[in-house]
Amino acid sequence: MALTVHLSCLLALLVAGLAQGIKSSLRGQDPGPQPLELKEVFVLFQIQYNRTYSNPAEYARRMDIFAQNLAKAQRLQEEDLGTAEFGVTPFSDLTEEEFSQLYGNRRVPGEDPSVGRKVGSEESGWSVPQTCDWRKKAGIISPIRNQKTCKCCWAMAAAGNIEALWAIKTHQSVEVSVQELLDCGRCGNGCEGGFVWDAFITVLNNSGLADEKDYPFEGKVRTHRCLAKRHKKVAWIQDFIMLQNCEQSIARYLAIHGPITVTINMELLKQYQKGVIKATPATCDPRLVDHSVLLVGFGKTKSAEGRRAEAISSQSCPRPRPRHSIPYWILKNSWGANWGEEGYFRLYRGNNTCGITKYPFTARVDLPAKKQKVSCPP
């Protein structure tokens, strides 16, 4: 673990120096001595993320893609209006097409699914707190998952939603089976993408979900091999709803009831390292949402964070960074704990960044009602 951290820090420093050298060269300035070239930075990337390539031609191709991704990360760094930092990630040797094919979900349809948007009347009298982070309450948020090359973000987001709500309602922590959602889904192509509402319908049809330990994730769909009836259910839901497309309403519901699922445009996540992403519709179109994640909280940056970001960016980016606090959402991703902020990321809260308000869905959880015995009066 310590070696990984040291490699990550060293790689970040070297990439920053390389980017600064590229920028100076483009401006016609003498970048000064360059102790490490692109090839050496690429070697460190291979070590950190355990990458090997089949032949010299493939190695050269991947290094060229790596350089292009570094250039794009630098552009994103200059364009972003928040405190986000972009750079080397586990996906830095993939083309945009490969990344989309491996990790992108199907684009959701232009029209809303046939579920009415609503928020219960019990929320009307509640004010929205300044901050909310369900990760701080033990046993609510399950560990970060890794979908690998199975495009099942929709199932993992739905599973995380059910786990959190079940723990809040029953005070019992569970990890439910994502594989059951894939094997038993009504569409039968779970690793090719799907929608969170399909996951909820599968749970309702199966009268609950099995434990992850009993029905573990395999990263592929076993066609026509739904094993739901073989395993004991450890959590179930009553129904599911789509919330209003208003960030204030979403924050209120989140604070009162618990984490919810959202589907966003993942355009900027490939290069994301940490911080708050504040994108414009031009850089992250809110209409083109293609990645489902779990919304677990919200808050504001401290002004000191903005000053630190400004100090860092002043060496490589001409755009001044904000010094005031920035409101943000906290989201749980499904790309492993080595990505982003230990598997999480933050989006600016207040302007529908990357389409976060388009499809806010949540299950509704309650313990099953005990059936009353019926007896004939004497």
Automatic annotation (TrEMBL):
The keyword Endoplasmic reticulum applies. Residues 42-99 form the Cathepsin propeptide inhibitor domain. Residues 1-21 form the signal peptide. GO terms for biological process: immune system process; proteolysis. Keywords: Disulfide bond, Endoplasmic reticulum, Glycoprotein, Hydrolase, Protease, Signal, Thiol protease, Zymogen. Its main location: endoplasmic reticulum. GO terms for cellular component: endoplasmic reticulum; intracellular organelle lumen. It is found in: Endoplasmic reticulum. InterPro entries: Papain-like_cys_pep_sf, Pept_asp_AS, Pept_his_AS, Peptidase_C1A, Peptidase_C1A_C, Peptidase_C1A_papain-like, Prot_inhib_I29. It comes from the Eukaryota. One of its GO terms (molecular function) is cysteine-type peptidase activity. Residues 128-364 form the Peptidase C1A papain C-terminal domain. May have a specific function in the mechanism or regulation of T-cell cytolytic activity. Belongs to the peptidase C1 family. This is Cathepsin W. The gene is CTSW.
